[in-house]
Amino acid sequence: MRSTSSKNRTGRAARAAAAVLAGALALSLTACGGDGDDDGDEQGGSGNEETAGAVTLPKLNGESLEVAAVWSGAEQENFKKVLAEFEKRTGAKVTFVPAQDPIINFLGSKVAGGQPPDIAMLPQPGAIKQAVDKKWAKPLGADAIKELQENYSQGWQDIGKVDNKQYGVYYKAANKSLIWYNAKVFENAGASEPKTWDELLSTAQTVYDSGVTPFSVGGAEGWTLTDWFENIYLSQAGPEKYDQLAKHEIKWTDPSVKDALTALAQVWGKKDYVAGGATGALQTDFPASVTQTFTGGDQPKAGMVYEGDFAQVNIVQAKAKVGTDAKVFPFPAVGDTAPVVSGGDAAVILQDSKAAQALATWLASPDAATIQAKLGGYLSPNKNVDNSAYPNEVQQKIAKALIDSGDDFRFDMSDQAPQAFGGTPGKGEWKALQDFLKNPTDIAGTQRKLEADAAAAYGN
Questions:
Q1: H-helix or E-strand containing 431?
Q2: Which three-class secondary structure state does DSSP give residue 215?
Q3: Reduced to 3 states, what is the DSSP secondary structure of residue 453?
Q4: By the number of CB atoms within 10 A of the CB, which of 56, 357, 380, 442 ranks highest?
Q5: Residues paired with 322 in a beta bridge
Q6: Does the pLDDT at position 34 exceed 70?
Q7: Which CATH superfamily includes the segment(s) 15-30+53-175+344-411?
C-alpha cells in the first residue's frame, strides 16, 4: 500500500508533538458532554452555487457518485451523514461502497471491471502512490487545492502528494499513541497512569495483582500489532532511525529492531498479561479488544487496551463513558521521548468529473469534518475545525494536540511500506508480528522473516 518513494514524510523531531500531547492528556480527562447534533445548516447562495461558510459547492442535480472505503459500523454510518449533507447542498446522489482490505486490491477489481468508484478513501500514503503509478488516481483541481491550503498544515498536504502533485485530501487522521484503561480497574488496583515504559510494566503488574489481566490485544488484525511495534520503535530508536526503517534504508535485522522486539516481548511474552493469552489475542479483532476492556463492570477481561483515538467508537458501543469509565494516557516513553505516531485516510479521485472534484473540495472543508467530529470517534487534521465540535474533553485534547503539533509527527510506518509488506492480512509485517505474538522468544527469527519479506516487497 505504500512505496519506497513516500518522500513527502512529515515531522522532523516528534519531540514537540510528544510534549504537546503529554501535556494535554496529563490534564483532567473528564468527559464534558455527549454527542453534538450532526446536521449542518444549509446557507443560502445565489445562481447555480451554494455557499456554506468558506466552502462553495456547485449545483449537481442529477449527478451520481460512489465513494469506497474500508469502514464499517458507526464509522461508516457517521461518514454517510457527511455525504448526506453534501447531497443536501448540491443535489447530487452519493452512494457509499463498502470495500475490502487491502483496498488497492478491491479497487483493482473494480477498475478491471470498468466500474471504479468516483472517490476512494485510501489509508496509506503508499496506496496513493500506487494508485497514481497505475494511472487510476486523478489530480485534485484548483478548488480542492485551495481548500486544502486554507485548512491544512503543509505536512498534511504533502503526504497527499505524489511527485509534488496533489492527489489526496486527508479527511481523517488518527493519534495512534494512546492507551485506554478501565478507570474502575485502576481505582480498585490503586494503579496510576504511567509515563515511562518501566512504569507501564509496573502498572501492569499492579493490575494483574488485583485480579484483572492487564492488556487486551486485538491480534486477529495484524495492523494493531504493527502499531504497538511502531510506538516502541519511534520512542526507543528515535525519529531518524524510524524514517530509515520506514524506507528500508536499514534492515529489519538491525539491532534497533531487536531492542524494540525485546521490549514488546515484555508485554506479549509475560504469562497472563494478555487477555486469552496469545491464542485468545489472535482470535480477537480490534473492536472486541476494546469492548472487552470496558464490559464486565470492574472485572472485565482486561484493564487496558492500546490503540488510537478512534477506539472511542467501540468504547461507546460498550456503553462506557469516555472520560469517566474509560480514560486514556499517552503511550509511555520507551526511550528519551514519548512517541507520536499518526495515521489517516485520504480521499482520492478515481473518476475525474465536476461532481467528484466538488466532493473532494467538500471533504477538505471544515464544514464536512465538523459534522463527523460532533459524532465522536473521529479526528480531523483540518486546523479550522473548531475544537469545541468534538463531543468530550478527552477528544478535544487529543484533537488539539494533533493540530498543535503542526508537522512534528511521524506517519504510521507500515502505512508507508509497500502493500505486500505493511498492509496485507496474512502476509509480511502483519503475519510476522502475529507469529511473534504467538512466540515472543523468537526475536532473531522474527527479524529474519521481517527482513526477507521487506526485501522482497521493497525490491532491495
A1: helix 428-438
A2: strand
A3: helix
A4: 380
A5: 326
A6: no
A7: Periplasmic binding protein-like II (3.40.190.10)
For residue 399, CA distances in Å to 23, 269, 362, 443 come to 13, 33, 20, 36
Closest CA to 190 of 171, 210, 172: 210
Above 60 in pLDDT, residue 428? yes
Amino acid at 43: Q
Bridge partner list, 328: 180
Mean pLDDT score across all residues of the chain: 88
The CATH code that applies to domain 178-339+426-458 is 3.40.190.10
Closest to 453 (Cα-Cα) out of 436, 123, 439: 436
Side chain identity, residue 123: P
Question: Would you say the C-alpha torsion 122, 127, 129, 134 has a positive or negative sign?
Answer: negative
Identity of the highest mean pLDDT range in 25-29, 44-48, 291-295: 291-295
- Output the pLDDT for position 41: 35
**pLDDT higher than threshold 70 for residue 130:** yes
8 Å CB contact between 79 and 96: yes
Specify the residue for cell string 471533504.
363
CA pseudo-torsion sign 277, 279, 282, 288: negative
Lowest mean pLDDT among 28-32, 49-53, 175-179: 28-32
| Same fold across 15-30+53-175+344-411 and 178-339+426-458 | yes
Q: CA 210, 213, 215 angle in degrees (round to 5)? A: 130
Domain boundaries along the sequence of the chain = 15-30+53-175+344-411, 178-339+426-458
